[in-house]
Design brief:
Blueprint lengths: L1 H32 L8 H11 L4 H45 L9 H24 L2 H24 L9 H16 L8 H11 L1
Helix pairs in contact: 1-3, 2-3, 3-4, 3-5, 5-6
């Protein structure tokens, strides 16, 4: 009579432990998701605001293009970083718990329950690593982060020149975004534009 009760109690404790793990993972996920509200790039935005709201249409257009693309790449970097590191940390925790469960004597008495729970935790950890790797989340995070840094530099160069020859800065924004897309999909070097090809040909002569 006592053996079924002990087994039932062990299973209940194992389920409680699994629920705690799920809650911890959910809390970590919420923390990473909330990264979108963390401050980033406000100084550049405040510096560009007078130009965006100014009367010069070309300067306003370029300032808006730089700022909007910067916000997009930074937000994407934060999201992909949250997904990548969230899965990585969760997999590490689950792997550690899988090893710990097999050593527990007080909370889980049934050897069968311990093995089953350890197996579930190990499979969940392996699945998270597989998803993170096959999804190339690290590459997506890094590509967006680098693009954001380059756009930020372009924005400060635009401010340094006081918006002179504003539309020329659009030639820098396009390649930055192209390199980001190529880095995400794992493509080759960006193809030169006709203007760049003409300049290179002229320089060779």
């Amino acid at each position: 009579m006592n053996e079924p009760a002990a087994t039932s109690s062990s299973v209940a404790r194992a389920l409680v432990g699994l629920l705690i793990v799920v809650v911890l993972i959910a809390a970590g996920w919420w923390l990473f998701q909330d990264r979108d509200n963390w401050p980033r790039g406000e100084a550049l935005g405040e510096a560009l605001r007078p130009i965006v709201e100014g009367k010069n249409p070309d300067q306003a257009l370029v300032a808006r293009v730089i700022w909007d693309n910067y916000l997009e790449t930074r937000a994407n970097a934060a999201r992909w970083s949250g997904v990548y590191w969230g899965l990585t940390f969760a997999a590490a925790v689950l792997s550690a718990l899988a090893a710990l469960v097999l050593k527990l004597e007080t909370f889980v008495h049934s050897e069968g329950a311990k093995k089953d729970l350890a197996a579930l935790l190990s499979v969940a950890a392996a699945l998270m690593i597989t998803i993170s790797t096959s999804g190339d989340f690290q590459r997506k995070w890094q590509a967006n982060r680098i693009a954001a840094a380059e756009l930020e530099r372009t924005g400060y160069e635009f401010l340094e020149k006081d918006g002179a020859d504003a539309r020329s800065y659009l030639a820098a924004v396009g390649p930055i975004l192209l390199r980001r897309h190529l880095a995400i999909v794992g493509g080759s070097e960006p193809r030169k534009s006709p203007q760049e090809a003409a300049k290179a040909s002229a320089a060779g002569k």
